[in-house]
Give the backbone structure.
Amino acid sequence: MSDQDTILDEHIAGEYKYGFASDIAQETVAAGLSEDTVRFISAKKNEPEWMLEWRLTAYRQWLKMKQPHWQNVHFHDINFQDIIYYAAPKKKPEYKSLDEVDPELLAVYDKLGLPKEEQKILAGVAVDFVMDSESVITTYKATLAEKGIIFCSISEAIREHPALVKQYLGSVVPPRDNYYSALNSAVFSDGSFVYIPKGVRCPMELSTYFRINAQNTGQFERTLIIAEEGSYVSYLEGCTAPMRDENQLHAAVVELVTMDNAEIKYSTVQNWYPGDKEGKGGIYNFVTKRGLCKGVNSKISWTQVETGSAITWKYPSCILKGDNSIGEFYSVAVTNNYQQADTGTKMIHIGKNTRSRIVSKGISGGKSQNSYRGLVQVAGTAENAYNFSQCDSLLLGDKCGAHTFPYLEIKNKSAQVEHEATTSKIGEDLMFYCNQRGLTSEEAVDMIVNGYCKEVFKQLPMEFAVEAQKLLSISLEGSVG
Amino acid sequence: MLHIKNLHARVGDKEILKGLTLDINPGEVHAIMGPNGTGKSTLASIIAGKTDYEVTAGEILFHGKNILEMSADERAREGIFLAFQYPVEIPGVSTTNFMKAALNAKRKHQGLEPITAKDFLKLMNEKRQLVELDKSYLSRSINEGFSGGEKKRNEIFQMAMLEPLFSVMDETDSGLDIDALRIVAEGVNKLRNKDNAFLVITHYQRLLNYIVPDFVHVMYDGRIVKTGDKNLALRMEEKGYDWIKEEVGA
Ligand SMILES: Nc1ncnc2c1ncn2[C@@H]1O[C@H](COP(=O)(O)OP(=O)(O)OP(=O)(O)O)[C@@H](O)[C@H]1O
Ligand SMILES: [Mg+2]
């Protein structure tokens, strides 16, 4: 066999490892959703019978549900029969070289400081270093395997670790939880699975970035992370590079479970295509993320930087079941032009001495609408629960809107709940002051916004934080004056 | 250095500057006094490039360049500085970060590399001692929770950091206690050299005991109506503005 053939073989085998069987590569199902679509997806993924049944149950529940409209966002009802629910991952790169790629997109990559090779992958240009990245992944996987950590696609987990998946899938976000979680449960395409065994501290940040073809699984992504007793993992989702996608609707589900003394840190940078300056196009990002602090002294913290999507609708939540467990939510949500975001969190205190902390920074420019919606619920059982919420809104102009909807449901008198909220504006005087010191309006907005978000950025892994700062600058371009 | 000729400016229908002429050369200190509402801060804002005002006639040349065609940030990078009468607060941005951004914006304009962290720290230390500003203020959000006097001192610290060619100080003295006034004024004196110039707006002669002006102008109703040396300020303090009003026939 020639060298080239070996490489090719390895490549294809590698692809399979990450959940994409090579024999299904070129197929796509027609638009529309029916039981047959669900069966087709399940079959294409070689799923066992129980998984198909699970999907079908979810599908039947979904049929009985209605699209929710309580969020503070506006859009036309989605026609679910127009959506293509299964598209095989693109095997062939779309372009031969970077010259063929939209220069505007490349300009953004440059501003983010992404290396050329990375830009190629993201833009769908043929690259010759896939083998490199494969070998990185292989080393990566070996290190993890040594510690008994499982990190693979959810499809692979369904085949290789059925007991774990059966036990936990849908245990935190049941399919019937809401309209989009039911939909996701029926048709989810792929996603990540992480299992950290007892007492293990994951030695590196786990990131979807390291999974080939991650960009093809965006539409109905399903993620499940389980941290056994005394374990720790930090997981990064998304990437700062703008992601274009033909699919208008993204409805992901993420479930986290921590046992006694375990901790999961989940960081997201969301930068899906937000639509153009006139508000045309863009992704609808309707996500259900929830973590269950099942064990005592366990901790789940969500950090998110949301800059993309035409409409974002997500509330990463924590169910604080174990005594002394801790839930945290740190969020920066940026909207510009005609973007709409309705995001926040739910902290459900059930165990004793449970604590939660919410820090939300909403930044709106252009004609966008940005809402914080948060629920703090303290059950009768949650003796000495404590919550602190800080919700700040920053307006960059006078055509945008910021809204705050805090909900409290307190059923235990010992609970201590603190809420602070501010709304501020980058007024003309502030802008003139910065201009007078030699800063352009854009530099001034950058500086002010980054100062404003510091508390949240501090939660991100260093590299991510730097990228997130740059991303904010890019997202806010043209938001003032 | 700065030549203002027959400047007319208004906001809405209201004419504020009504033919103001002023020439300032390198190495000079000019003081402007005048009753409330005569347009002193307006003049400062227009020099600095605030867009609220419409200039209807006249010109402002800075080193021969027509600055009325430049944005506020360009003017700043060219070396024009305004110490504000009412400095604003910037939550979440420390004086340190603010100054670093401002200094680097200027350096970029001059074709220089961003300042190194080490040099920057050194410069900060040197300049903050000039106005005896405590270190702790530098890491706090700019002007947030600062007292009136602290804000003014911070303005002069920024001026020292950026080493502008031309500085306007708009009532820097108001709000400063007696000791602070002396400290700030001495700081300004140390910054004076043959290449830079200052325009000091004040209501009180006291400041001019420390920062001794080469010229004192009296502004009234949008114009400079009288110019003299430092003794003019003494006379104003003594007699008030009525005699000026009479002189100009108002
Ligand atoms: N943006 C504006 N809109 C409307 N009126 C303005 C504006 N700026 C200034 N004015 C008016 O123009 C006049 C001059 O104001 P300015 O602030 O320049 O006075 P000043 O000489 O600095 O007074 P003071 O000694 O009180 O500081 C005042 O009557 C003021 O109300
Ligand atoms: Mg004034």
